[in-house]
């Protein structure tokens, strides 16, 4: 859990992802289109993948990936991010982290 908390605070926007996950890719592209350069952690390439997945679930993720942290706080997964974007509440949240 400590590793995930440390990793989630490395940058303003952090996405825990898997290299083969199309939803993770869609969330990454959305942030890039908004002008945000998120820190991407592809957990399937980490030897502690299972522990990271468990820690993300304990933090409240409904699914381990994608898990999006903004300002070090868990915002959610694909559904939450897309809902925020459609309701125009995502851009103000990421505004401090624009490139």
TrEMBL record:
Cell membrane listed as a keyword: no
InterPro entries, sorted: GlrX-like_pln_2, Glutaredoxin, Thioredoxin-like_sf
Domain (Glutaredoxin): residue spans on this chain: 13-75
Alphabetized UniProt keyword annotations: Cytoplasm, Redox-active center
Gene3D superfamilies to which the protein is assigned, alphabetical: Glutaredoxin
Any one GO CC term of the record: cytoplasm
Major place of residence: cytoplasm
Record carries keyword Iron: no
SUPFAM superfamilies the record matches: Thioredoxin-like
Protein origin, superkingdom: Eukaryota
Localization of this protein: Cytoplasm
Family of this protein: Belongs to the glutaredoxin family. CC-type subfamily.
Name of the featured protein: Glutaredoxin domain-containing protein
Organism of provenance: Brassica oleracea var. oleracea
């Amino acid at each position: 859990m400590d590793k995930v908390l440390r990793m989630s605070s490395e940058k303003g926007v952090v996405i825990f992802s898997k290299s083969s996950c199309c939803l993770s890719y869609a969330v990454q592209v959305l942030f890039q289109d908004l002008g945000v350069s998120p820190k991407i952690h592809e957990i399937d390439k980490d030897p502690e993948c299972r522990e990271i997945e468990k820690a993300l679930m304990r933090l409240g993720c409904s699914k381990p990936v994608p898990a999006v942290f903004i300002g070090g706080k868990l915002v959610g997964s694909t559904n939450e991010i897309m809902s925020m974007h459609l309701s125009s509440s995502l851009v103000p949240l990421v505004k401090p982290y624009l490139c």
